[in-house]
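TEACHING EXERCISE
Course module: macromolecular assemblies
Task: Read the component lines below, then compare them to the predicted structure of the full complex.
Student: A.B.
Group: 4
Components provided:
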Amino acid sequence: MSKMNLTRRGVIKTGAVAGAGLALPTYLSAAAHSGYTNAPTGDTVTLGFNVPQSGPYADEGADELRAFELAVEHLNGEGDGGMLSTFSSKALDGTGILGKKVTFVTGDTQTKSDAARASAKSMIEKDGAIMISGGSSSGVAVAVQGLCQEAGVVFMAGLTHSNDTTGKDKKANGFRHFFNAYMSAAALAPVLKNLYGADRAAYHLTADYTWGWTQQESIQAATEALGWRTVNNVLTPLAATDFSSYITPVLNSGADVLVLNHYGGNMVNSLTNAVQFGLRDKQVNGKNFEIVVPLYSELMAKGAGANIKGIVGSQNWDWKLENQMGAKYTGTNAFVQSFGNKYGFPPSQAAQTCYAQTLLYADAAARAGTFNPCAIGEALAGFEFDGLGNGPTLYRADDHQCFKDVLVVKGAENPEDEFHLVEIVEVTPTEQVTYDPNHPMFAGGALGACNPGA
Amino acid sequence: MFGLEKKDATLLLIVAVLTMCAPFILNPFPSDSGLAQFNAGYPDLMQRFVIFGIFAIGFNILFGLTGYLSFGHAAFLGVGSYSAVWMFKLLSMNVIPAILLSVIVAGAFALIIGFVSLRRSGIYFSILTLAFAQMSFALAYSVLTPITNGETGLQLSLNDPRILGTSISADGGIPVTQLFGIEMRSTYAMDVGPWLFQFNAGYYLCAILLLLAFYLSIRIFRSPFGLMLRAVKSNQQRMNYTGLNARPYTLAAFVISGMYAGLAGGLLASMDPLAGAERMQWTASGEVVLMTILGGAGTLIGPVLGAGFIKYFENIFSKINDNVLHQWFAFMPDGLEDFMVTIVHPFVGKGWSLTLGLMFMAVVIFLPGGLVEGGQKIGKLFRRKKAAEDTSPAAKTPAE
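Instructor-supplied answer key:
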């Protein structure tokens, strides 16, 4: 069975293999390049767009990808230039970034942290991506942001709404343009009080991950400050598709408001279930039963169909913003027009934030005069800009979060077509949604130092 | 050599050469050519190749030898990952304690699950392991959130204690995983003309562990213990009638294969310190079954091949998007180009699993012994020609 057969040739062969095996790792050294990770050498620069192409947020992912492609076109001087013409910073001239043509690679996050990191890693290690953008799930965004920090590239968060992304999990290499759960709650609370009064009992259904947790916490704090009671908070798995078993207990809980802390496909399904169970026609405690969806979008309104009518929520941006609320939100129409020309329908808020993030990154690189993540970080921190559709905006240096106006929206009662499913109720000014960087809901993390990698 | 027969020693040597030279072998195309899309020689994917190779080798010790089909092996992988990340959070960033703990915890976990599940065999055993794995997944996903951080996944942070290390590295970031000072992420890049070869420290650690795991598996396959496991597979009833209790043997095989999975999980976390619950989901358990069957269950090298095959598809084919397709078919006239892109589109990018499924079906139907059988068939073609010239019947046993 086992015999020791020592031959001269065998010993030499084994020795050579073992020697090579032992010698290789010691031969390795960390400094392969000087400067920073993936410094572009040719006449192109590669950006990595990592979006969900499958899973509950696939619709948002597809729209994000459209926006990224459009942004790359505009950066390279193709198309009509979109928001480049309205952007307050004029460092970009349509010749790529710093004279290098922009190319991009895409990946599928599958709405799973593991898969998202593998995909981002292959973009960084194989394709030489200098910046990673995308998202659509805060769990994924937090995981990929951590990876980018370790690898020494910039992460421009796409759609991620959890407080943690720029709160306890914030990173020096990560930047977020999108608003967050705290801002949603701060903007929604006064509207909810006007519509539904100060004496209400709320029942929360919450997606069981970082975004759901922080949004539920924010909404609960804001509504309890109005005088509402919180009856119960039930966590639902992100992968769930049928919510009927979670809706039934709501009927007899004594609650008169249902808060759905769900997004994407989750929200479409849970809202549909809730309406099917007749919640909206019910009277509880002598009041009409109401449903609130704190974060929603045109895409979800489309998915939910007639069920969305009259439901109140918040948004980062809407394509009708400039037409209805005035020239303060300049850039919106320019973007809607070039997006519409290319794809035949108006962009969602996910598309707008991804487009803006790409432009902001390119602009920061152009102003810094290098692709070094630390220099780009310095150029973005404390940067004030306008003309990207949200009005005057500040990239706060303390946590790399953007501060801008927040929209409170409502499902349209009689939409004129499928692009007018959401109507703007009011725009909450920046001051009302601004918070201290050390606010308890955001405490417990630190940016750390920026990491340029190699 | 190493107490192996010549045939096995050769196999071990081949695997050793393949893993050590992987950065060259997997990067055959110059990086500026269109075929660079198919290069797989970057650290993350090479690490995945060998780590899932270890996972599949371990699975094969159970499935290939005893015939017990476990549908819950991902649970051990996940448990291993969580233990390793906790070690990084609490103790130090050195990978040795993390890997040791992940193997031990996964072994203990396998002992408990195996003790219960092995009371049944066949489909009932498979269902029991599946149930346990789904249970672990659900626990990790929601109930045990304080330990696992649920859907978000367990990650390192700046305020972890790390008693034997530092909480914050000198430059203010989270320290990186290392082996006595060699950082796992450190990569030596070698530019040879248009080629770029990347030698990654973490990959070589995984590769050396793969060789050890492979060697151990050969020894198990050739030992009396391995023979006993094969006897369980061929006819357990007959074994019972001869007065032998098979359960201690199957339990030992189950625990060993659980420890292999734990090692793989610990390595995954050592290369990238994050553990997510989806690592334990039933799809992950199914994947290792596919790897083993695709490569050739019960063979030594098969599972490693199968693991490489699936990971290659998952990471390379999934990245071929419509833009790339248009570049490929750019030489054709417009209408034909769009037509070709439409035809190929469903099989690449998002549809990579469709292509993989078709190949899996083809392998199972035409090569029931997996890729290894394919290799043997090709080998036989050549050998028959040789045998005609040379009458010596020496080389006729196929490599297992």
